User: Fold this.
Amino acid sequence: MRTLKIEPHLSETELKKVMNSQKTVRDFKDWQILYSVQTNPGKQASSISDILCVTINKVYKTVEKYNKLGASWKSNITWGGRREKRCIMTIEKEKEFLRGVETDAIKGRIITYQQIKSKLEATINRNVSDDYIWDLFKRHKWSKKEPRQSHPQADKVKQEEYKKNSGRIWQPNH
Assistant:
């Protein structure tokens, strides 16, 4: 095991202040690793990982990023979510597009998702997958409406009586 050394980008008090100001557990843990390494010089990564209940790899990666990027190392890290450079449309453009489609949908002019897909493809001049359309619906909380199985005012007793008492007509096959 190798011993860890931190570049002195921040003093111990500054590091502790930053660590205590973190809002998420993940960020707090990262700064806690850095604080532990800086306040315990000569400790090995295995002992620090055991004390903080993180993997040895996590300790090495955190220290490496901090040493390389400095005190602002955390601002470069992004977790999940949409990457605007790779997205077909921004959220605002998607909302604007769906507002235009919503009026037709409410009037019953749009029946299938393929109609929305073709409108979207015409708008952005690019083919999109079916999954993109379904993800678009989910992102903006649109739901699939289907016809009901039976009329809400239907009388089940009368329907069953009709099924039992209706005459059957037999016709020969010609």
Q: What stands out?
A: The chain has a mean pLDDT of 85. The helical segments are 12-20, 25-39, 45-52, 56-69, 91-106, 113-124, 130-139, 156-165. The two ends are 92 Å apart (CA to CA).
